[in-house]
Amino acid sequence: MLDEDPFAHGSATEIWRGTWKGPPPAGTHSGWIAIKVIRTASAPDRAEELCRKLKREARLWASLKDPNIVPLLGVVFDMTPSNVPSLVSPYYKNGNLKSYMNQHRTELSSLEMLKMTYQFASGLAYLHKVGVVHGDLKPDNVMIGDNREVVVSDFGLSLALETAGFTTKNFYGSVRYTAPELLGFAGVSGSGQFVPKTANGDIWAFAITSTEIFSSKPPYHNLRTDSAVLVHVNKKGHLNREDYKREISESLWSVFSRCWHYEPSQRPRMLEVKLFLINKVNKYRVR
Questions:
Q1: 204 closest CA partner among 243, 132, 255
Q2: Torsion of CA 84, 33, 159, 85, to 10 degrees
Q3: Would you write out the chain's pLDDT as a tens digit for each of its 287 residues?
Q4: How far apart are CA 135 and CA 155, in angstroms?
Q5: Contacting residues for 260 by C-beta, under 8 A, at least 6 apart
Q6: Are residues 202 and 137 in contact, defined by beta-carbon separation less than 8 angstroms?
Q7: Label partner for 189 (CA 20 to 30 A): which of 1, 2, 12, 35?
Q8: Coil, helix or strand for 38?
Q9: Cβ–Cβ contacts within 10 Å for residue 82, how many?
């Protein structure tokens, strides 16, 4: 059964809440599920191509097993006229990272926020370990479980949409979280040519996204337009340290700064970031 209307929208998606007719599968919360529906108005051959790519991504997603990764529960084929697969995952009543931190950040201790950042890093490190690039990391694609655990969602979707021609830009996602080489500044020029997503791009987006765990401030919050952000990043500009001095420690800021190094090869691997964070959590606990 589905709700009467979708509860969320993406640039090419609608997300519906529903329940199973039979006993709920393991991994659901109170039996509720979320169904991500891809909406297209393209020619049948392009929809067929997207079908193939989404099936491939779904098979990969179903094989992933990690506590900080949203599990895939199944796919359905009757939510769109072109029978493009819709992806079924648990419904998270706490919502995504952006909405949750906007409402609850002041209730969290520094240790709790640090643990959430570690869980975020752990989920992404797992994806990279098994050779999966997320491609569209941002707070909207990071979910919060019942116990405030962080789980990464929507990996692979941007790759399927982009390579199947369902986006018109040479990057998919939000400018404010996208690494400069994916915006055309440090590599391929922004001429509409497809720019492959990379693990290094994920690492940049991880660090930018993580600042919202501690501050709830949108990145480059003093720049009102994406165009202004593009100019700023093109000039090798970063987030302003002064804006985060009260919320983020020097040691943590130093790691984030390495993650958003303008040169992709100079960014740390996610495993290194994960190990740094768990050590910081453990030291915090013994204070």
A1: 255
A2: -10
A3: 678 788 887 767 888 898 877 776 665 666 789 998 887 655 566 777 888 888 888 888 899 999 999 999 988 888 877 778 888 999 999 999 999 999 999 999 999 999 999 999 999 999 999 999 998 899 999 999 989 999 999 876 666 665 544 543 444 458 999 999 988 765 444 445 556 789 999 999 999 999 999 998 999 999 999 999 999 999 999 999 999 999 999 999 999 999 999 999 999 999 999 999 999 999 887 66
A4: 7
A5: 179, 204, 207, 208, 238, 239, 267
A6: yes
A7: 12
A8: strand
A9: 17
> How many other β-carbons are positioned within 10 Å of the β-carbon of residue 227?
10
d(CA 6, CA 75): 17
Of 132, 152, 149, residue with least CA distance to 140: 152
Alpha carbons 30 and 95: distance in angstroms, whole number:
15
The one-letter code for the residue type at 141 is N
3-state secondary structure 92-159: CCCCEHHHHHHHHHHHCCHHHHHHHHHHHHHHHHHHHHCCCCCCCCCHHHEEECCCCCEEECCCCHHH
